[in-house]
Design brief:
- With 175 residues, the protein is mostly helical.
- The protein has 8 helices and no strands.
- Helix 3 packs antiparallel against helix 4.
- The chain is globular and about 50 Å long.
Amino acid sequence: MTIDAILETLPDYAKDLRLNWSALVNATELTDDQKWGSFIAAAYGARSPQLLAAVEAEAAAHVKPEVINAAKGAAAIMGMNNIYYRFQHLSTNEKYGTLPARLRMNIMRGHGADNTDFELWSLVVSAINGCGKCVSSHEKVLLEKGVTEELILAGVRIAAVVHGTAAALDALQPA
């Protein structure tokens, strides 16, 4: 199923999601790698296999397979890291922040995509997963690399719309 076909299944009360998809797909703030990587990472992070398959199929026309793989890698690793670091953030026990994570994160060095783009995709998924510590960390790295707040928000808008779409699709599933 294509993205357009999925969007057509959304009820009228979710019309804003359809309109926002169109605006985001046609937006020019992000490079194709950043844009489609953000869509992929967000669909993966939103846990929507149907949406991920449609986004991945569309992205394949715009970006190299390495970008798709790296964006999914960012989403996978953030699925783990967001839980770990959100726990540290929510716990009142400061000792947890001083202990080593002891979690493998090799994908962060060997993903085959642009490092700045990988940071953006990590931020996108961290926003979906609500990990303030990870959002802050990835935003800081992006800003240090010269990424503008406008570009960061473009990625976060993708996260918001993809997550909203995944939630609407999930709500339409029979009980």
